[in-house]
C-alpha cells in the first residue's frame, strides 16, 4: 500500500477568491485576543502543546540508524580499489542526468547533479555508460569537473598526518577516510542524550577498517572531535554477516546466531536491543541473483506499532525505482504486528529510508543530522496516519 502523506501538497486554502476584482474591498480587521484565536478549531496554545508533545515523543524514541559505507560515509571503495577522486567521479556519474538523442548522441538534461531525475525520461550517465572513475576528466563529464574539484577540497585532511583517519588520494594528498558529518551526527546525538545505536551495513569489504577507525576516533584521537572520549559510545569490533534466502534471513556475529525461520521478528528484535556501534556485511550475491531489485536487497524491518523505536536506513543506492534499489523493507501490521508486508520505497522515503546525497554529506557537517531530524518529523506523521480508522495497514 502506498500512502499519499509523503508527497508535498499545495493548498489553495487562504487565497482570496476576490483577487483580480478591482471592486472588492478588504474586510475590516476585527480586534481579537491572540490567545483565543483558533485555526481549524485549535487554539494556538493547544497547537503549540500538541507540537511540543510530538517533539517529546520523537526524542523519547530510540533511534536505530542503519548506515551504508561506500558513497555514504566513505569516499573510497576497497573492492573496486577506487581512491577518493575515482570514487567521487563514479558517484557523480550516478547523479548526472541525460539521454541519447535521435542521432544516438548523449545530451545532458541538467547542468546540476541531483539524486532524483530532472525529467521523466532522464537516465544517469552511469546507467548508460557504466562505471567511470575518470568521469569528470572525459569530454562528456568535464562540465562537472568544478563540482568534483570543490568537493575534493572539502574532503582534504588538513590536520597532522594520521594513518587511520586519513587516506592517501590518487594525487598524493591526504583525505578524510570517514566523513566528518558522520562523526558530527554521533557527537550531537550523544550530547543531546539521545538513545540510539548505529548499525553499519555494507556489501563491501571495508567494514573491519571502518570499525577500527571509528573506535580510534571515539578514543579522542580525531583532531576535529577531541571530546569523543567523553562520549562513552561502545564500538564492537566484530563484524557480522547477514545472509538471505527465500525461506529466511540469517544473522551471525561472533557466537551470536539469529534467524527469521521460526519468527519473522527475530532479527528485528535483535536490532532493537543493540547498543553502541556495530557492523554487518550484507548478502550481495542474493541482491545480484534478484537482478538488483529491492526485494533482494538489504533486509530492513519496521513495526509501526512499536512506537518506542525508529529505524532509519541511509544508503546511496536507495531509489524510488524498485527495479534499482537496495533495501527490502518489511512492515509489520495486524494484531500485535503479527502480519507482514513488503513496503515500496516510496512509502517510507525520507521517513525510514534516506537516499544519501553524497555531495551534501561531504560539504555540510549537519547533513546526516538533518536527515535524521526530517525522518523523525515525518515518522510521527506516518504513525498518525496509520492510526486513523480504516487504514488497511
From TrEMBL:
Residues 13-26 have a biased composition (Polar residues). Residues 1-55 are annotated as: Disordered. Residues 1-12, 36-47 have a biased composition (Basic and acidic residues). PANTHER family: SI:DKEY-32E6.3. This is Uncharacterized protein. It comes from Pleurodeles waltl.
